[in-house]
Amino acid sequence: MFRIVNRLIQWTGKYKRRIYIGFIYAFIHSIFTAIPIMLAAKGLSAVLDDFNGVKPLEGRDIWIMLGAMILAVFGRYLFSYLRAITQESVGYEATADERIRLGDILKRVSLGFFSKNNMGELSAAATTDLSFMEMFAMNMVNTVVNGYITVIVLILFLAFYSPLAGGIALAGVLLSALFLHLLEARSHQNAPIHQKAQDDMAESSIEYLRGMQVVKAFKQEGVSIAGIRKAYNDSKKINIKIEVEYMPFNCLHLFSLKAASIAIVAVAAMLTYNGSMELPTMLMLDMFSFMIFGSVEAMNNAAHVLEVIDATLDKLDGIEHADIIDKDGKDISLQNTDIAFRDVTFSYDKVPVLRNISFSIPQGSTTAIVGPSGSGKTTICNL
């Protein structure tokens, strides 16, 4: 997962500095997340001391606790807000730049590029795939990186009061990471198939819509819709397959975290029973056990979604590295807008379409290009 997260951060280019700043805000946010639990334990300890006659609980103590709790809640809100406004919009801004970059590349590639590449794949890359990226890319980065930042901070707080409980929490996270890795490996196998299913749906939908008039004219609805039904059925099958293979590893991932939570409660109770731990500390560990793994539990979806994003980045890289016709070209000022062809020969890959074509169209004139089907009329207009 971290390889894909790093790749995603590098893909954002000039915006990655904001992502790193967001990680700092997430770290401070996790500290403020742990503070209320420690304050609750401190308050409970003060109540027990008052009950046992050790130290009376004064109104001043209550107001200090209340102020500290309000400060902790405000700190969580503030740094969560700062992280959100710093990181969340990066996905939308980076994909907007990517769309412009793709458009600039596609308008400068040879016409043979479109015949060699699947039109549905190109259409999906500029629409569906980039929409998926802008909605989920930064969300997944936040889930993985900030999730582990939060759990590491909470484990350190936990280990300060009980190294044994901290060790159990760490073991639970490591075991969870193992099952997430297995889930990611399975998703890595399914991601290219899922990507192809998405491309096939886009291609078949475009083909169906473009040929709608011809289909209606010759009453071939049944034949024409067979392709689109097959594409959508293939997409349904791969999505069901992904869910079926996702469930076992997801259950093991969640089970390892829940088992670690139960073990923390059991260890805290045992240490308190043996007199090695005070009751307020035990209750604090119990509260920690219920929320310490919350940020890690949400990573089950990230393991799969990141693999889909990785496949999307592979596709975008393929388009961005396409050969450009005027790679070393530059803008020139035109004296007129005459069009002239001189001995032009053109082919799509290895299939020749035009041979030694020469003509001149003066500025402001009208020209009719006439010829049989397949003679290259559209090619001349595109050139």
From TrEMBL:
Transmembrane regions listed in the UniProt entry: 20-41, 61-79, 140-158, 164-183, 251-273
Entry membrane topology: Multi-pass membrane protein
MF-aspect GO terms: ABC-type transporter activity; ATP binding; ATP hydrolysis activity; ATPase-coupled lipid transmembrane transporter activity
Gene Ontology CC terms: plasma membrane
Record has Nucleotide-binding as a keyword: no
Entry-linked Pfam families: ABC_membrane, ABC_tran
Protein name, as recorded: ABC transporter
